[in-house]
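Hi F.,

I've been meaning to write this up properly since the lab meeting, where we talked about keeping a consistent format for the predictions we share between groups. The idea is simple: the sequence comes first, exactly as it goes in, then the structure tokens exactly as they come out, then a line or two of notes. No screenshots and no reformatting. I'm using this chain as the first example so we have something concrete to point to.
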Amino acid sequence: MLNPRAVVLAAALSTVAAPALAKPVLNPLFTDHAVLQRERPIAVWGTADPGEAVAVTLGTATAKARADKSGAWRVELPAMKAGGPYRLSATGAGGVVAAADDILIGDVWLCSGQSNMQLAVNHSLGADGAAGAAPDPKLRLFTVPDKAAETPQAQIEGGPWLIAGPVSIPSFSAACYFMVRDLRASEGVPIGAIHASWGGTQVRAWMSAESIAAVGDEDSRMFAARQSNPATADARLSEEWQSWWRSISGDAAGSEPWHASSRLAWKSVPAVGNWETWDGDMANFDGMAWFRKKVTLTAAEAAGAATLELGPIDDQDETWVNGHLVGGLGAWDVPRQYSVPAGTLHAGENEIVVAVYDTGGGGGMTGPAERMRLSFADNGAKALGSGWEYSVVKPNPGIPPHAVWSFPGGFTWIYNAMIAPLRDYGLAGVAWYQGEADVGARGSYADRLGQLMAGWRGQFRDPKLPFLIVSLANFGTPQLAPEQNSWAELREQQRIAAARDPRVELVVAMDLGERNDIHPANKVDLGHRLARAARKQAYGGTEPTGPEAARARRVASGVEVDFAGVTGALHSWSAARVTSVELCAETQASCRYADAVADGTKVRIAGDGRPATRVRYGWAAAPTTNLYDDVPLPVGPFELPIE
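Output, unedited:
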């Protein structure tokens, strides 16, 4: 299933104006035990009665504001040095006060990404020691729950801030906790960690609309088109989907996939629900199946617009009514509710067709049956919980085209509800661990990640905000020969994004993974490496963060790769040769394993008499690599042209 945790939609999927209030209210980010960023202006905001004057005090600092017509107010307090505790108060008319106590000034880190950042301490190595540690009154934790919204939200949900201890640590992000625990020890100031992650999400779900537009690729243009003209974008997606289906089915051009096809053999659906509970060809089935149902309507029922409600569909669907695409989502636990425009339905027999693709686990139209109906403008409805037919598609055709705007992996949805509401809360830096969901996605991940960082820096008003990027851990079946590998390509895109930006540090995790588990448990060592990177980027430290491949050049004996950031010398652990080194020419078929040795801050690769224009290292989902320096820290994967 695409999303391991339940989806909770932001209320009405839109910003809701604050109701009239009897007293000022601090935003939920400002609770007891909060940490505010030191040495930069401190923004504080909340709500009050429209037009109400609000005075905000933190220690000896005071600022005033007046609530706007929606009741929102914001002040900016002067920068403060690390310290506390302080009381933060907002005083309104008549002396009514909202306050948060035990406020510390220190450094705040935002930890975000997908499931490997989300993995909790109690599921990681080191869990017993972390949970049993004495509370640290100067380490504070804040969790943003999984939320999504179609438009940017004003109000954050989550919290409150908690002091790190046996109650708060076990459920917190392991990678984030082990990083900030190290920083508390090394920096000697209060540390706050905000955790906002969601498993199975692509990077574009975490980007603002402006950042997506700045990427400028085909998907970005499609997203922009959907925002300006939904009907045109839906028609374009429908054409793309039909073209894809015809390439799979062999049906003639111009044929409609919701009608009979040589690939479809219809059977009666035994009962609405998880198709893996059915007997026969759907037991343990992962892949694609079609569903269809015919509905007879009166002229009055068909006269106007309607709403099609199908309940959750596991995982991805595209849905047509009488040949018109009405919607499609990619979330296994989100009830489908699609608008059917006026003119789509007609008196007599109408046909609903749903193409369902399941990636794993249970699948299909999961119901319950009573939630499935076609509702009309006059409040009448037709039940749709029975009478369906289905047809399996074999062999598995692969994941079909899908709407780039579909929830929850759709563009901007998670940013809107989990990042935008943080507004300009002061940060020391961001730790980002994401990319698994982008493996194989078209377009440049490096470009998308670069625009995400630019967008977040703009939001948090810090053009030099440090980012720590975790390169994907090893996962999957070891390869026996060089191959084109999408997991390796994603890591290379992460490396490129980091190399473009001097305020980014790449944190290698390729040796910390588990071949059979996409969620490796060793987040302790990852936390140590993240803290090293943080000290370099945010604190001006000189602590080594690991060797980086700098250039590959042709020499008489073959090729030499020079490395920067090497502490001591490079070593090939447990072997006289460096493993997982490849020489390649222009084609993938030209790649072959090469004989390579570590020599100081270089790796020397013997020539083999064949053309070579590129060097690759660790180019696999789960490569066997053995190149480390004296810290020891690993050399990460790379691909370099040979100069």
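Notes:
The domain at 221-393 is CATH 2.60.120.260 (Jelly Rolls).
The longest strand covers residues 97-113.

If this format works for you, I'll send the rest the same way.

G.
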